Structure formats: C-alpha cells, structure tokens
C-alpha cells in the first residue's frame, strides 16, 4: 500500500486538495473547487458574502463545509486511492473565525454519513456568518485592545503583531460588543483551519501556533494563550478557545463520516491544521532562516523564515509560529491580484499576457509616475477609506497605468518589509501573477534581487500534505528532517531565474523616496 498524504487548503475563493506519494516523492493528485462557481447558492463574490458596509467582509461556514463534501466526492469520482491516505492536514485563510453553540461537540462526534455535512451542522452555529481576513471594520476594537496591552510596540511584542482589524481577537471583541446574547451562547470559537480539522476529526480541534498567532491572543514566545490579551478582548474567552498545538500533530483517527461516505481508511489520522501562509512556508520549502518568498495571490504577501522571534516595533509586520519550528515573518497587502485585475479590466486588457506586453511598452520607473492601488481598504499601510491615488500619472494612459499598479505594489513591499532586516540572496515567487515574465522582471528590479519561480500553484495545500506526512512519521517514532522531507517537492522551475537589471534597480532606489512621499501625502488626506 502506498504512503499517501492529503493536504487541503480552504482559501478565500476556493478549496483545494493535493495528494502526495511520499515514497515516489511526487504530487499524485491536485484539485480545486471555486466557491462562487461550484456553490453559487451562497451568492458569494470572490468568496465573500455581499454586505452594505464595504469594510465588513464575511463568508459562510456552511459554504466551507459543503465545499469539503463536494471535494471528497470529486476525489472519489476521480479515483483517488482514498483508502491509502495515511494522514490528512489542512490550511485555511488566516484570521477567519467560526462560532459554535454547545451542541457542536455532540454533533461532531456523531456525524451521520447518510446526511450531508450541511445537514449535520444545522443548529450548531452561534453566529451565522464568519468574519474573514478582508474585514477591516474593527478599528475601534483594535484601539481598545492595543491601549489595554500598552501600545503598538507592547502589543506586537506580546502577540507577534500590533492589533489588526482582520485579526481574530478584535473580531471577537466586536462580536461581543455588538451581540452580547450570541456571544454568551458561543461555547467554542474556531479558526477556518481548526474548523476544517474539527470536521475531519469529528471533535473540536486545537489551533496551531502559526494560525494562532494571527489572533492577537497568543503569547508569541511561550505559545500559550496570553492572559492579558484574552482579558482585553472579551470575557470568558479562555473557556471558548481550544488548546494550542503544533501543526501536523495527530488529533485522532478521521471521523467515521469520511470512512463510510467516501472510503477513507479507518486508520487514517486527522492532524492539526494551520494557516495558509504558514503552510505555504512548508510548501515552498522555506525551511532555513533568511529565506524569503513573495506570493502574488488574492492578497500579496511577503514572508520568510526566522529563527529568533523579532517583532516589528512600528507594528506593520507580523510574526507567526512556523510549522517547521522557529518563526515566520509576514506582511500582507490586501490589494493584490484583485487590484491588478481591476486595472486590467479598467483598460480593457484581454489577458495577463497582453497586460505584460502593455507594461513592457513603458520604462522602469514609469517617468516618475506613481499609483497607490487602494481599491479596497488596505492593511499595509493601514488605510480604512479605500481610494486609488495617481501622482504624475495620466489616468487615460493604459500602458503607464499597467506598469504603475505593479510597480506601486512592489515599491510598497520593499518599503514596508525593511524592518525585517533581511537581505535575501534570492527570492522565491509564487502565486498567479508570478507566471508573468514581465511582472517577475519588475519584481526583481524593484527588490534588486534574483527571483526564482516556484510553480506550486497550490503551495498551501502541498504544505499541508507535507505537514500530515511529518506528523505521521513523527508519531511512528521516526525523526523526519524538514529539509529532507520537502526535497524534490518544492524545486524552483528550471530556467525561471530572473536577474535584476542593475540600471533599472538604481531607478527604483531613487523612486522609493518619491513613493514614500506620495504615500505619506495620500495617507494624510485620509
Ligand atoms: C495573512 C492574511 C492573508 C490570508 C489570505 O495575514 O490575512 O494572507 O491568510 O488567505
């Protein structure tokens, strides 16, 4: 029997599965299910429920559960050897939270395979919808928590990050303040990742150190719930949170629901899941400290591994626990691919190849034109009133705007990642936009660094599959080394290396100053 491991990734817009064969050292199956397309009855747009307040972004925990049923059904139809899967792990969009009443534990323990998950879960939610990472409606609560913890620097030193609107603690505080009755009825709070793990295991699952750090509730150094942070957030919160545990650690055998319905092996183990970024660190093979990756996805993220915990005193960056041990640093820019798409649509550009060709018609630095693409409220820098800002840029000039949106994004990344103090030798690029050579060249030039593409379209799901393997091998008494485990799965694409153009890099060194001034001016106007 092969040693197969399954990784799931419940992201903003889709649920993905990756199956690896550990001995053959390869991915044997990949599948994605787009929420808007596959489950249109939830009426989501890019995975988000419509809401009149543009700062409020919620999704549906039932949608995520239904997607899980659908994906297992698809795997069965596609002939995946589900009986040979030894362990499962998962990752989820970070920060999003699910609220259960006291019935959940019993319901999870007796999931009925004759019914769908959605039918099983009827009546277990204390809150119908789930706030997700795109939500920026909790500025007041962030202020309250930050003040109680002693300011930005102290909050970051305690929990790994300043209080952020999308982080789970401020979201829980808002829920407590605005719906006390429902908060009082909440018996358990899960993250998207621990929700998926709970459904797989048939019991309330722990939260891991990676995703747990995205809550403003975990002591980043001791990796336990932070008493003062909990007290600053909402009453009786400790009773509603599960224990913390390392990602990949076994929770128990998978629920009989999955065995009877889809043919999983009854001995298969459900393991602790993590956030999509921590999982991607594994999926991209960023095991050694000092390695950096840029993911150009729904959000653009800049992240890397670090051995010792060093927090950002200015409060823009985050420190999370890394599933490979140690820590990872991360900066998240909300206006990623959706902003690029908006510009592409605005100028009627057919596809990304055409977008790249259009951009290439202009020169690096764009003659000093700057665009700040805050189509949505932005996380870094913190912008709560969306708006697009152009400086020395003609709105009618399609080519200049195509370059300006991506240059603006990359300059912002360079400016706001300086606190990490890492001078990477090379940067790994991943995510949809990394397939575009013109964009990759801009990235290399702005960062003045070699860039290599890692073609793992599903780096988070692959990371989750590797986590499942690591956890399973560890439980079997082996001592798997991360570097050996990921080897072969996460090679950069041959011939994908892009070298920075030294002249262009100099242009960006100079432009950075102007960019900072434009950003300051735009923020002042907010
Ligand atoms: C990270 C963040 C996003 C989500 C996307 O802090 O908010 O990258 O994890 O799924």
Shape, per Cα inertia axes = globular
C-alpha end-to-end distance: 61 Å
State the secondary-structure class. alpha/beta
- Separate helix tally: 21
Number of extended strands? 21
Residue stretches low in confidence (pLDDT < 50, at least 5 long) are: none
Our Rg estimate from Cα atoms comes to 22 Å
Average pLDDT level:
95
Tell me about the biggest sheet? 7 strands, mixed
Helix content: 25-40%
Bound molecules: D-xylulose
Strand content: 15-25%
Overview of this protein structure:
The protein has 526 residues and is α/β, with parallel strands linked by helices. The chain is built from 21 helices and 21 strands. The strands form six sheets. Strands 1, 2, 3, 5, 11, 12 and 13 form a seven-stranded mixed sheet that branches. A six-stranded mixed sheet has the order 16-17-15-14-20-21, sandwiched between helices. A hairpin with a 3-residue loop joins β14 (292-296) and β15 (300-306). The longest helix has 23 residues, at 502-524. The mean pLDDT is 95. Bound molecules: D-xylulose. The site of D-xylulose has 15 residues, from α14 and β17.
Which descriptors apply to this entry?
alpha/beta, seven-stranded mixed beta sheet, six-stranded mixed beta sheet, binds D-xylulose
Strand-helix topology:
Elements: E1 4-10, E2 14-21, E3 26-34, H1 35-38, E4 58-59, H2 61-77, E5 85-92, E6 97-100, H3 104-109, H4 117-120, E7 130-131, H5 139-149, H6 152-159, H7 168-178, H8 180-185, E8 188-191, H9 192-201, E9 207-208, H10 209-212, H11 227-233, H12 237-240, E10 244-245, E11 250-253, H13 256-262, E12 269-271, E13 274-275, H14 276-283, E14 292-296, E15 300-306, E16 318-321, E17 327-333, H15 337-346, H16 352-359, E18 370-374, E19 387-391, H17 398-416, E20 426-430, H18 437-447, E21 450-453, H19 459-475, H20 482-486, H21 502-524
Parallel strand pairs: 1-5, 5-12, 5-13, 9-10, 14-20, 20-21
Antiparallel strand pairs: 1-2, 2-3, 4-7, 6-8, 11-12, 14-15, 15-17, 16-17, 18-19
Helix pairs in contact: 5-6, 5-7, 5-11, 14-19, 15-17, 16-17, 17-18, 17-21, 18-21
The structure holds D-xylulose.
